[in-house]
């Protein structure tokens, strides 16, 4: 059966080794995603706001109870961004409490997140006490990146040019650390340390390029055009082994590194990079890049990352089949499944290739049947290989209202377009 010939209300006939599993409707899928997004946002609106010191509680238990008052800057910035994006682009979230929470989050970040590093440059802390005292600073760029995302997105809602300018100033600092002098991050140059192109860095910068340029005047687009192209080329260097593998870490020249670090595969990151590249290729009309994104960063990591015995996407793999040194390698985490849903649905929306929609449905069935907590709301984040909940909190140092609501938000919008275009 050709999916493009199906009537409007039927979008996929799902196949596996046993044959046809089910017929799933586009409308039903969209309504499920819409309902889930509403519930996720309500969960965080209800349980995470700190009305005393500002910002958000991040460590939220299964039932919504705060179990630790530490605040993580990655998650503070992500929550602001998510609130603002929903407020700005979806009418049902254009509500005063959403905007006020985002404003309170940015106020907390601007007051407390920035700290002086050992080099004398301003960095953002990784972790803060409830009242904003710095606890830990990482030697990476990611706290700064999510700080930038938060300020830029709120500036779009409020029209605050000073906030936008601050975001761009912080972006300039991040670019300097990445492309010119990483010592400002506090990393000493050690003789045995091999300079590495970790895929997370160009991915994050490409995300920020898209954030800072979306809908902005041509001057801003041109300002970051060269950086965007550089990010794409850095990401493409991770295609290794003659195009048969995506490796998480490569040398600066784009060659394979020795040892466990060089053999590491992270299917979730590759899938996320895939839809970043799809967005970029669509914006610039690059059909060759679109093909590479789908074949190498969407289909390929799914093929080696999908657990054929238990279902779901494995967290880490070793390209040569050794056991990865990461103890959580065979767990199923929430965020790679979110990235897979976005990647396959976006790829299908751009190409209308039926197998991409079948992949989406395969991930959709696993994800909604394993991660979503219908009783208490929100999603569990950490499952064993056979799909049982290992850690039952809804928010922790790395899990907050970002990957899940971003996935649901993007999938709902893509499905809206697919339904409208089909009609």
How is this structure best described in words?
The chain is mostly helical and 423 residues long. It has 2 domains: 1-48 and 197-423, Glycosyltransferase (Alpha/alpha barrel); 49-193, Glycosyltransferase. The protein has 13 helices and 18 strands. The strands form 8 sheets. A 3-stranded antiparallel beta sheet has the order 5-8-9. Strands 16-17-18 form a 3-stranded antiparallel beta sheet. A hairpin with a 5-residue loop joins strand 17 (382-383) and strand 18. The longest helix is centred in the N-terminal third of the chain and has 22 residues, at 26-47. The protein is globular.
Low-pLDDT residue intervals, each spanning 5 or more residues: 1-24
**CATH fold annotation of the largest domain:** Glycosyltransferase
Q: Give the strand content.
A: 5-15%
| Rg calc | 21 Å
* Number of DSSP strand runs: 18
Characterize the biggest β-sheet. Answer: 3 strands, antiparallel
| Total of DSSP H or I helical runs spanning 4+ residues | 13
Structural class call reads: mainly alpha
Mean pLDDT level: 93
**How would the global form be characterised?**
globular
- Strand order, largest beta sheet: 5-8-9
Helix coverage percent: 40-55%
Task: Give the count of structural domains.
Answer: 2
CATH class category label of the largest domain = Mainly Alpha
Record keyword descriptors for this entry.
Glycosyltransferase; 2 domains; 18 strands; mainly alpha; single chain; 423 residues; globular; 3-stranded antiparallel β-sheet
